[in-house]
Amino acid sequence: MAGLHKSQFQNPLLNWIDSRLPIPSLMYKEYAAFPTPKNFNYFWNFGALAMVTLVIMMATGIFLAMNYQPNTALAFGSVQHIMRDVNYGWLIRYVHQNGASMFFIVTFIHIFRGMYYGSYKAPRELLWILGVVILLLMMATAFMGYVLPWGQMSYWGATVITNLFSAFPVVGHSIVTWLWGGFSVSNPTLNRFFSLHYLLPFVIVAVVFLHVWALHITGSNNPLGIDVKGPQDTVPFHPYYTIKDSVGICAFLAVWAFLVFFTPNLLADPNNFIHANPLQTPNDIVPEWYFLPFYAILRSVPNKLGGVCAMFGSILVLFFLPWLDTCKVRSARFRPMYRMLIWVWVLATVVLGVVGAHKPLGFWVPLGRLCTIYYFFHFLVLMPLLGVIEKTRPLPDSISQAVLGKGGGPVPSGAAAKPMEKA
Amino acid sequence: MMRALRSLLAALLFAVVAAGPALAQDAGTPPLPNEQWSFSGLFGGLNLAAAQRGFWVYYNVCSNCHSMHQLHYRDLAGIGLTPKQIKAIAASVTVPKGLNSQGEPVTGPATPASQFKSPFPNDVAARAALNGALPPDLSLIVNAREGGPNYVYGILTGFVKPPAGFKVPAGKYYNEYFPGHLIAMPPPLHDGLVTYADGTKATIPQMAHDVVTFLYWTANPEAVERKQMGVRVVLFLVLLTGLTYALKRKVWADVHH
């Protein structure tokens, strides 16, 4: 057959398709033969886990949308209709509801993996930036999704968060009215949130595509943070990482299933079992757990606009991480000070989450401020400074040298050159 | 440097652990009762006899003021009532039945497909009849309160004498578990208020326990099926994880990594 692409597939059907539209070749190149560092640990599961979660969220969401009514008079009841009358509606909804939490858990770990092993450094800056874009899109999607059941916390959460935009001078209130489609959170707000909640996941899919594309150009980082030197450092993605990801996926689904079947409302707020009531503010308006650190940062600044800027800044600062980090060594394994300090940052962020769950009274206020300051101190001061003052440990020459050296002392470099591909 | 970091970590951790419980209690409210529920725990089922007795309490007492919007009479099959019993229960209440041929609203006996009858046509009517107070809908009440079943049980059994000097205004009642202690609901239960068909003695704790069991079911009608399915799904996934891990070991056996 004449054409630019000559298919290598033996199977006649695959060959026929591949000669015309080389998706099989693409999949083979990017997901079967793709050379992948052979020293990944299980932290490298979490990208695949996030992808699986995205697919499950979209699949369950489509079925929920078939039975949901985006109308303030009907929304709450339609969710109960799903829970009670739709066949296995409770299962679909609990998978989706807990899926939001699972999505953030795996994404936070995925981001932590990137930070710990320096995956954002050259040449992977764009890959990292696309990841932060996905995080922002996820947050917007999750926030709007939480409004849809139209419980008390849905309504008041939406009111508080959209009101943040009123902090901006001059245009603030106009922006809020525009977001609401009225003069309070009301039916137009619910309608558009439903529309956008359905749209944004598809935008996420598009950005994930770019994220994976960028990944397949630069290649994966690895726990040593050193570049791949040759085929002896890699294994083909299939079967090595398809099977290793499968282990993680099964374990992850087991944890998710445990939540869904045994404690489906563990992370839910009792207030959201009460129909939205604009005339009655709940005692304490608390966002979902995955927003708590950012909520705590918001409340730690004693000025509304300052708080809003600090909250958005806490995510936006991630965009600049590739340039804020001045150290050339990627992996924390070879950075004794960073290896400690990244955990202090994690602790500060977790404490911020705890602070965010409590009323800003007494002791929680200074603790929140301390952690907020530390959060930014880490990125804006420590990261640039460490590159100057930290004495990094010597890097191994190559992945295979480090791997073979682990077992029994030094190994002649020739021994590492054995090709690793099977079949 | 390292030592300073470690002590900072320890101090932060201690601060969080120490402050958590200290802020949890407010003065004057005893800890919630800790009842034994048939449905609690990972494998808890549902005591159908208690749920049916609870329905009887709801039907005779609670439903005089509280709505139950999310339930239909047909749902009562979930606590083991037979189609005949459900039909009889539905037929015992009169509900709006749409319009007649003249366009006038009519009423008639409910059917199993009817929604549970609400005691008031709307919230305004409820407030007008009840001294301004609006009784909350009970469909999801167990899920909608911090403390869940123990809290609802606490409210039903928590009408005690107010402490000396605590002024209870007219139309309000003192309840030790209610936030602020002043509740608009008069004590709803007293010993012997209902007669149980199975001969169980209708004491206040007994009726409270039964009605909370019923209300747990109205809020979580899928719970028994969910947990049973969960055992199979989680066991399957754990087994699959093990098998996949074994396969992974085999695939990676000759790679040094």
What do you see in this structure?
The complex is a heterodimer of chains A (423) and B (257). Chain A contains 16 helices and two strands. Chain A is mainly α. The relative contact order of chain A is 0.12. Residues 407-423 of chain A have low confidence and may be disordered. Chain B is mainly alpha-helical and 257 residues long. In chain B, 41% of the residues lie in helices and 6% in strands. Chain B contains seven helices and four strands; from the N terminus they run H-H-H-E-E-H-H-E-E-H-H. In chain B, the strands form two sheets. A two-stranded antiparallel sheet of chain B has the order 1-2. In chain B, strands 3-4 form a two-stranded antiparallel ribbon. Chains A and B meet through helix 4, helix 5, helix 10, helix 14 and helix 15 of A and helix 1 and helix 7 of B.
Features:
heterodimer; A: mainly alpha; B: 257 residues; mainly alpha; two-stranded antiparallel ribbon
Q: What structural class is derived from the secondary structure elements of chain B?
A: mainly alpha
Question: Which ranges of chain A are low-confidence, i.e. pLDDT below 50, for 5 or more consecutive residues?
Answer: 407-423
Main sheet properties of chain B: 2 strands, antiparallel
User: What string gives the helices and strands of chain B in order?
Assistant: HHHEEHHEEHH
Largest sheet of chain A: 2 strands, antiparallel
Termini separation of chain B comes to 34 Å
Query: Radius of gyration of chain A, Cα only, in angstroms?
Result: 24 Å
- The overall average pLDDT of chain B, rounded, is 91
Proportion in β-strands of chain B? 5-15%
Quaternary state of the chains: heterodimer
In what order do the strands lie side by side in the largest sheet of chain A? 1-2
Strand content of chain A: under 5%
Roughly what percent helix of chain A? 55-70%
Record field, number of beta strands of chain B: 4
**Uncertain spans of chain B:** 18-25
Tell me the number of helical segments of chain B per DSSP (H or I, 4 or more residues long): 7
Q: Let me know the average pLDDT of chain A.
A: 94
Molecular shape of chain B: globular
Task: Write down the secondary-structure element order of chain A.
Answer: HHEHHHHHHHEHHHHHHH
User: What's the number of helices of chain A?
Assistant: 16
Shape designation of chain A: globular
